[in-house]
Amino acid sequence: MRYRITFVAGLAIGYVLGAKAGRARYEQLARASRKVADSPLVQEVAGLVGAQASNAGRVVYDKAVEKMPITSVRDFLARPTDEEEELLEWEARIVNGTAPEPRTGPDQDI
After folding, report:
1. What secondary structure, in 3-state letters, does 39-89 show?
2. Hey, is 105 helix, strand or coil?
3. Whole-structure pTM value
4. Residues sharing a CB contact under 8 Å with residue 99, sequence separation 6 or more, in sequence order
């Protein structure tokens, strides 16, 4: 209980002291940050960085489209997996009559 009272008293003292000096310091920091943000040099650098980020985004997008030419997420999700692709090819060979005959006999794995 003694520690709780000490903790609460410390919070109260810190709040009172911070409130008296805090507002003036806050205003000082806010003025300095506005001055830096409104600087023409900072505005120019921010514009350059934004343009480079936009160009980099376009380059990444173009490379991704080259590697994975899909038109939508739906198309991507509709593409068969490797196993499904093999099954489709096997079924096509069965229908066309080019599939090998199924093995029967003692050497067949079941």
Report:
1. CHHHHHHHHHHHHHHHHHHHHHHHHHHHHCCCCCHHHHHHCCCHHHHHHHH
2. coil
3. 0.37
4. 90, 93
